[in-house]
Amino acid sequence: MGLVQVAQRATDLDRASAFYADLLGTPPTARFDPPGLLFFDLDGVRLLLDANAPSSLLYLRVDDVAATVERLRGQGVEIESEPHVIFSHEDDTLGPAGTDEWQAFVRDSEGNLVGLVAQTR
Length: 121
Fold this sequence. Notes:
Layout: E1 5-9, H1 13-24, E2 30-32, E3 37-42, E4 45-50, E5 58-61, H2 65-74, E6 79-89, E7 99-107, E8 113-120
Parallel strand pairs: 1-4, 5-8
Antiparallel strand pairs: 2-3, 3-4, 6-7, 7-8
């Protein structure tokens, strides 16, 4: 069994498309309007942006949490939580052993909370 799709609330597809295309570094893979559905590919898992979806808390892997937060801050994105180490992985249970897990939280263009995550040695 594997994860196929995650839905996230987006009331303005154009605005959400611009935000997520910039954040993910890739354009949407499909748009169906009506009924108002926008898709991105997250390494084989579909991210569906939909006005009728509830808000979800997405955690997105990035290469460098601090650099991503600074880039987003420069674009006026609301930063909810600055980059910080949330956990040190002693084994491979939740991430590569010997790494620190960095997280930060931002608000997307639709007001949803989005977690940014990186594991560094």
